Amino acid sequence: MILTFRVSKWYKMATAYMLAWPYGYTRVMSSYYWDQWWENGQDKNDWIGPPHDGSFNIISPSFNADGSCGNGWICEHRWRQIYNMVEFRNVAHGTDMNDWWDNGSNQIAFCRGNKGFLAINNDGWDLKETLQTCLPAGTYCDVISGSKDGGSCTGKSVTVGGDGKAYIEITTMEDDGVLAIHANSKLPSHGVVLHLCPWFSILLGVCIQWTRIIRLLRTSSYDLAWVFNSLPAGAAGVVAISMILP
Question: What residues form the membrane-spanning segments (predicted)?
Fold first, then answer.
């Protein structure tokens, strides 16, 4: 069987495997659509060329909102599952295949050094396994079902533990029978901390100022009315309580 865009799920699985496996020089197909006319096992329309007008001038592709092509062009190289795997190959360049796993049937998985991990499910049942990904601990975006977008994933995410293992799930109901993560698809683990740090700094500054005022009130004869009026809303109560406490 020749895999083409007409069996897109298998085609994407095969292309993902090709781009993930450390061998040779890879080529990604980019093609166009034509209506088939089968007769006696032969496509009578196999002569049809790329999209064209009535004078057989080739028509340029149009581009959809998701980056895919229109006007009769397929543009497999623009499919998210394929161009994300090109990045996978670039990230994993220079590493070997290691930690191969299979279920004895049509479910496989393997690492590319400590840079990438790929799993494929071509069985008629779900893949649900805890597997070695060889990647550092953290949360990674699956680059097949989506992409990493800033500090979040547009598709599935995979949580890798300190031992490099992660729960991997590819169900038969999913559009794609592949899952892939790599070093560049890891989410920043410090994103929340960085987001909260400015608030902690502000609170710390306010607390320091309050402490100084309280010390002044305890050791001097400042006008209490002026002090309380100069504090932010709600702060006077804190100062009053602090004055009572030893």
Answer: 192-212, 224-245
